[in-house]
Amino acid sequence: APKRLSYEEKAALAKNEALKRLYNTMVAKKSNLSVAMDVNSTEKMLALVDEIGPHICCLKTHVDVLDVWNDGVAKSLTDLAEKHNFLIFEDRKFADIGNTVVSQYSGGVYKISEWSDIVNAHIVPGPGIVDGLKQVGLGQNKGLLLLAEMSSAGTMAKGSYTEETVRVADENPDFVIGFISVNPNSWTKKSKDRSLVHMTPGIKLQKGGDGLGQQYNDPKSAIARGSDVLIVGRGVYKAEDPKSSAAEYQKAGWEAYLSEL
Ligand code: BMP
Any idea where the Orotidine 5'-phosphate decarboxylase domain is (predicted)? Predict the structure, then answer.
């Protein structure tokens, strides 16, 4: 098998500004941790992000679960991103035709393209969804992740569907920066582009599930399966001490990465 590339090597190969920035941030902070701060209170979300900010390379948001949203909240978020040096990934999971996602990405109440660096999309509609999102995001140096696999039980994103995401990514090297994936080593062999990032949700130090389909892997096994960035939600924000939990996941993820090189 070809040797695994370091984050520095991937940064050097990256064709997209946001992707380069992500790898450079990971190297600078020694962090491959992305926290999913899925709390409903905007006030609590901002306070927790300020606490755990030093430990993450990327904040994953679900803007539509927050109880308050306005341009001031967006500004607070981007200020925190600058203060702690992390990227913002809005986990919007776009899934519509190109023309509709143009508006969903740039307009509405959330104006996602104004404050996020990275968004993601399902390829269910076909490649037109990438063309639409690219129309908005490329000129602003944004990046797009494709959902190649999901962490939930019974996911239909598998087999030829997963492989199709590789084809769509290879056709859009300027804008598609990688994948949401769970077991990338099992299907990425055909990918030409070794700069692409694999971001993996469903990570917890204690394996198990949540009673609603989530299936957890630990940091070490996720990295061994080819993941680059570990996404942790409840493992951090439900912990008694979110900051020390984030530090623990940062250390576990980074040691797992170093042991793979
Ligand atoms: P938690 O670690 O609390 O289970 O949170 C996982 C996060 O990752 C959630 O924000 C969820 O929406 C997201 N996610 C996931 O769990 N599985 C996927 O396949 C894709 C996701 O975006």
Answer: 32-249
Ligand 1 center–CA 10 separation, angstroms: 25
Q: Is 121 in the pocket of ligand 1 (CB under 6 A)?
A: no
Q: Is the CB of 234 under 6 A from ligand 1?
A: yes
146 lines ligand 1 (CB under 6 A): no
Q: Which residues pair with 208 in a beta bridge?
A: 216
Instruction: Please enumerate in sequence order all residues whose Cβ is within 8 A of that of 185, keeping only pairs 6 or more positions apart, or say none.
Output: 225, 226
For the complex shown, is ipTM > 0.95? Answer: yes
Q: Measured from the CA of 151, which atom of ligand 1 is nearest?
A: 19
Which tens digit of pLDDT belongs to each residue from 7-57? 999 999 999 999 999 999 999 999 999 999 999 999 999 999 999 999 999
Q: How far does residue 109's CA lie from ligand 1's centre (Å)?
A: 23
pTM for this model (two decimals): 0.98
DSSP label at residue 4: P
Find out whether the beta carbon of 19 lies less than 6 Å from any atom of ligand 1.
no
What is the β-pairing status of strands 118-121 and 87-94? parallel
Which tokens is 187 given? 């299907």
Task: Find, among 35, 29, 30, the residue nearest to 238 by Cα.
Answer: 35
Q: What is the CA radius of gyration of the chain?
A: 17
Q: Which of 2, 19, 5, 9 is nearest to 142 (CA)?
A: 19
Rounded to the nearest angstrom, the gap between the alpha carbon of residue 62 and the centroid of all alpha carbons in its chain is 12
pLDDT in tens, 142-195: 999 999 999 999 999 999 999 999 999 999 999 999 999 999 999 997 677 999
**CA–centroid distance, residue 202 to ligand 1 (Å):** 6
Would you name the residues annotated as active-site residues?
Answer: 91, 93, 96
